[in-house]
Q: What sequence folds into this?
């Protein structure tokens, strides 16, 4: 790859959000800002190949996108607008640097509770992460046309209902921050186990979860939920390299080569988890991070403190009950107290409608049944799990038997 | 400054049976607190008193005129019926939602809609 192309790929990965955020400030229209940023990247292809990569690619792109935006504004001055301008706070219009505040304003706008949940995630990945509509659609198992309509509708609502482009004030902050964190968490979990496709991980989503969690931590360093979420991102991603084998096949936690876990991420994630657990009340992300930390610090699956993990799931179940948490707890019980206990803990969950099509329940039953020597039942459960998963890597794993 | 209409939707049966005696006073307090942004508002008589005109759009001024089909009842029958409204000025949705959060409402909730002024 030419140096210019490598620099462009890198800029697309790291600078899309900051450049867009700075451009929105000028255009006060999300669609126009996106077009201007796309135009700046297109110009960069020519310019960087011909004249070399600029010293500060992000600043180059921002200048190009904003210049394009100003051109368009001049040209469209008299044109009637169908939608109101985006509501922004007044700042000096020629302020050149993409600021962290602009980026956060874009995050809070994309994750506004007045937008539908799926639209928040989609807008965040597209406007901040620079993902295409097709990439987002594939991550969330919806047709591209559906995802495109969802994004268009959300953008229209932002303009028409005047969802403001700003970091919310102290009174609104707790609710608004919670909405942002849940979007980042969904990006993380979707990236960690892609819902569909041939790869187990979606590296692009995991990278975006990292960026967003770091951005939030930089702005809200004392918020325990923010700290807990960054810890969870690090501790989850630390295991990524070991989760698939040489041919991309799924490797279970118990069988993973722990030397391939990222020690740096684990150390940072564990320290952040300790910090987040000091929050009162203890935030959910801190408990989730603590579970990941117990796994990360264990020398082996057998050497894992499963009783501790069951205890943490008990806390989750008490404060944030959900069928999936109940399932994870039951699996942990199986590792802490043996397959018979695990199977018994799983049994009542088979009647849970929310889990009826969730392949992890069948997969967990298959495992415990196998350990108990009940092979025929284990085969049936494994076949059921394989039918239910949309991810080819997981399906192959379940088929291996 | 933009306009927002805050619509209250109320379970009329529950309201008729059990409306709090001090609800009106709560509205008066709300109106006093937000007098600077309130442009209008009022409680609506129950939806059973509504009269609906359908049709129209064919005459040059788009008015229904004599084409209108007149029927008894609200335009859409819902369990929670439109029970009142406030029209407010607000610079953006967050400001509008902050006002909407303080609207006294029992047996239902409020909907916040931007008003498109010509």
A:
């Amino acid at each position: 790859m030419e140096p210019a192309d490598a620099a462009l790929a890198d800029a697309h990965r790291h600078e899309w959000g900051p450049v867009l955020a700075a451009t929105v400030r000028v255009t006060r229209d999300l669609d126009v800002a996106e077009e201007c940023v796309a135009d700046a990247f297109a110009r960069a292809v020519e310019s960087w190949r011909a004249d070399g990569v600029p010293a500060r690619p992000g600043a180059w792109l921002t200048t190009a996108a904003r210049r394009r935006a100003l051109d368009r504004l001049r040209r469209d001055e008299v044109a009637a607008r169908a939608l109101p301008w985006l509501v922004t706070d007044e700042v000096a219009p020629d302020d050149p640097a993409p600021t962290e505040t602009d980026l956060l304003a874009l995050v809070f706008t994309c994750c506004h509770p007045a937008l539908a949940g799926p639209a928040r995630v989609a807008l965040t990945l597209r406007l901040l992460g620079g993902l295409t509509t097709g990439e987002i659609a594939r991550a969330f198992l919806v047709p591209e046309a559906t995802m495109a309509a969802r994004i268009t509708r959300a953008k229209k609502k932002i303009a028409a209902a005047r969802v403001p482009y700003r970091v919310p004030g102290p009174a609104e902050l707790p609710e608004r921050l919670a909405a942002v964190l849940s979007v980042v968490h969904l990006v993380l979990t979707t990236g960690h186990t892609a819902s569909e496709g041939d790869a187990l991980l979606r590296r692009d989503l995991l990278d975006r979860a990292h960026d967003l969690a770091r951005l939030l931590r930089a702005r809200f360093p004392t918020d325990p939920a923010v700290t807990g979420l960054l810890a969870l991102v690090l501790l989850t991603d630390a295991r990524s390299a070991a989760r698939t084998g040489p041919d991309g096949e799924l490797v279970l936690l118990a069988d993973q080569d722990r030397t391939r876990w990222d020690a740096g991420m684990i150390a940072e994630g564990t320290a952040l988890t300790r910090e987040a657990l000091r929050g009162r009340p203890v935030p959910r992300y801190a408990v989730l991070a603590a579970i990941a930390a117990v796994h990360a610090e264990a020398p082996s699956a057998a050497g894992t403190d499963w009783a501790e993990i069951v205890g943490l799931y008990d806390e989750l179940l008490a404060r944030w009950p959900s069928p999936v948490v109940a399932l994870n707890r039951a699996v942990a019980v199986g590792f802490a107290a043996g397959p018979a206990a695990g199977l018994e803990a799983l049994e009542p969950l088979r009647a849970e409608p929310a889990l009826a099509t969730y392949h992890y329940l069948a997969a967990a039953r298959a495992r415990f049944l196998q350990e108990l020597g009940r092979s025929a039942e284990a085969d049936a459960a494994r076949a059921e799990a394989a039918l239910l998963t949309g991810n080819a890597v997981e399906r192959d794993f379940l088929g291996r038997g | 400054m933009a306009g927002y209409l805050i619509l209250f939707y109320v379970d009329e049966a529950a309201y008729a049976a059990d409306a709090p005696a001090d609800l009106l006073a709560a509205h008066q307090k709300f109106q006093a607190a937000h007098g600077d942004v309130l442009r209008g508002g009022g409680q609506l008589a129950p939806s059973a008193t509504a009269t609906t005109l359908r049709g129209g759009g064919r005459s040059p001024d788009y008015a229904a005129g004599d084409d209108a089909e007149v029927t008894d009842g609200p335009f859409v029958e819902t369990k929670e019926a439109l029970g009142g409204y406030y029209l407010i000025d607000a610079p953006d949705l967050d400001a509008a939602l902050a006002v909407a959060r303080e609207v006294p409402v029992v047996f239902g909730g409020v909907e916040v809609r931007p008003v498109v002024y010509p």
Summary: The first helix of chain A runs from residue 3 to 27. The two ends of chain A are 42 Å apart (CA to CA). Chain A is about 65% helix and 0% strand.
